[in-house]
């Protein structure tokens, strides 16, 4: 297979000029193309739009083509065909488009003539792209790395095809199930001037409508100041038209019947109804401009039906102005509406917290999706890990195979959609997302192999580099390619810019000696693989043991370890491994001490360096009973894919008795705690580790009793947390949460548990003066602190009823004919508050960019292997600061790279590392060449930063959002300064 052949067509239509020349028309897009209404009228911006889910009830392919219309009638290709024709018929008409995953497919199928026609519409501001990500990403469970990537992917396509007129100017997040401050900050750094969305908590909505605060200035970061502020508007009715004004083929509303000769003539009635709707909507908004979203899910397949009625509506409503009507209506776009608000020259209230969680009815709170489909959530995060590693390998080996990475980038862009990683899609669609990621990884593996052909070969050696295998089931101790082999290699790439110490676990059928890259024999533990792992359905490995050994992988580089089966199987067993059953036990290394009683309770964790102890009154697996109702009224709301609604606020222990097995080896000490046949946890401390690893295995969750169950891991301590806990947003900045409280309105509690759940994409903590317990996750989970001193994380759920938001299926995943078994990890850090960030910030970066191992079967002796192949390599010849992370390292063409570097500490978190940091970007390129040109770009990578001009907004405290970037004088220097939480994006051109 030669995947590269398939993928070179993908951006084949790329035009080298960034500014597509308009045909016969003035370049009049963006704010220049806006109708700003009339100062003394109520100006109604009519915004025709379609909301095209990149998969939900149907797969993205089915939606594009209009397949399986029996599930849902929806066909994106015809929407775009139809809208373009309708726009050509009347130059006043406007349309916005959002999801580039769809638009890109359509574009590749158009003739050059049609493409030019569309370019003209874009250049005249008649067709406008908003947001412009590959999908409309979820905001709760997504990771910032992938949000940036998916926006970058769409932005790159739009820039290449449409130039400046195709550059989106605002975020359009009308459907996601809550809104993240981190996303607002990222959008501000993409150069967006505003953000509109449709879903907020119903209590929040009512209050804002009453006080005319539907629009505000959101301070997106507590670290980055004005540059992170984003004007934010809540649109009414989520994103649908006012009642009785839906003219789509999906709707039954009356058309405008404007022949006065006919009995059904309805113009006066329709005009009056519209003016009433406009005035009603205007009560919640602060200016004499309002926006009406004329469209909904997959609408405009017959665009003519919409536009013909809207043309008439506009004509007849405005005709009443001569009779004194104050309503002025016209075709517009969200961008023009935003610009009109900006021109109103008023001040705006501000917001500093976020929009989580969102309740749609008093008992329907969108917190179930924080955990729904935990395996897909992990697979998505893992796929990103591979994507970033592959980009680095592609760049450092200079093989310019970016096109072969595209399938994984694309699959990741699709996976960010608010019905993808969120877990709110139908089962067959979830399967499709996973398959796309899997195929993307296959293609990435081709790139990984091509890269290692160069990186592993020593100069003057022409022997082929053996094929590298990714062992994607390593998490369940399975790696079939090496099973039973007499020798194999493991090459591990470290994608971070600091060297990393790791314990590696390799599933094996027999004993091996391990040679380090420098030829020493490495001491390893030979430990049995636990029964709960062996029992996971689909685990087909015959390996009964795993080898554990310590490694140190160089920064941005690799090490290769060589494994050779021990010739003499009678070699002495290592006698140091000790196992106890159902006895009290103590796991201990130089930094940590964990005490368990003989009934499997974790009694305490001690940080021996800091001399602090955390007693646990309880720790382990519990379950909530899912509420089962018919959804006919809020009180009958079921728990399901979107909503988490427990029957009672008190979770039950998964089991009252447990079995505990403690194992003491050199590299690891661990306690396996088995609750029953479907739930266990293994608590480990590795040699030298400062964090405790808790692996949980849950499933098949039993439902034979007819009861849905939502499983949590709970940690009950004596920390005096005073109703307060801390949760991250998209893996980055952390927000303070208070139980039963919302910072921006007077909160009435209807659901005491679900209303306190927040998305935990990477970490949650509680603290008192001496101790902070931070728990990091390996994927997004829902979590909370329901009692002082307690943290809980929901790891898996299985419900038996649909929750009535459209998906039409219960959240009931199965595999191998049984309820799905899921495993994952929590990482516990116990530190004083002042030293916590130093560790958890760094650990979190290493979790989403983990070392990536590939196995190979070289069929040569170690002596020969070390002669022929390079066994260690680093891209760095100098070290880089601890508080800098390399987020993106992507080769665009042989001499051009897109690089993102970030400061990953917040202000005032760490005495040393919460300060600004400076380093020379050249260090990243020392192996590749000298930097000839450096251009700082917006976060999306589609505009030089010095060309970014954002609209200025004033707060009601007279603060101005005006922000001037420090003048980048880059041609003279490659030294970069980053302040806390800053991400900088560069286009780097080498000599
Ligand atoms: C805002 O509140 C007013 C008064 O209660 C109501 O008439 C109007 O429909 C509300 N607006 C929206 C968009 O919900
Ligand atoms: C905007 O408002 C400020 C203060 O409210 C006023 O000083 C200024 O002249 C106004 N600008 C315009 C263009 O109306
Ligand atoms: Zn949607």
Automatic annotation (TrEMBL):
Keywords: Disulfide bond, Glycoprotein, Glycosidase, Hydrolase, Metal-binding, Signal, Zinc. InterPro entries: Gal_mutarotase_sf_dom, Glyco_hydro/deAcase_b/a-brl, Glyco_hydro_38_C, Glyco_hydro_38_cen, Glyco_hydro_38_cen_sf, Glyco_hydro_38_N, Glyco_hydro_38_N_sf, Glyco_hydro_57/38_cen_sf. One of its GO terms (biological process) is mannose metabolic process. Its EC number is 3.2.1.-. Coiled coil: none annotated. SUPFAM superfamilies: Families 57/38 glycoside transferase middle domain, Galactose mutarotase-like, Glycoside hydrolase/deacetylase. Belongs to the glycosyl hydrolase 38 family. This is Alpha-mannosidase. The lineage of its organism: Eukaryota, Metazoa, Spiralia, Gnathifera, Rotifera.
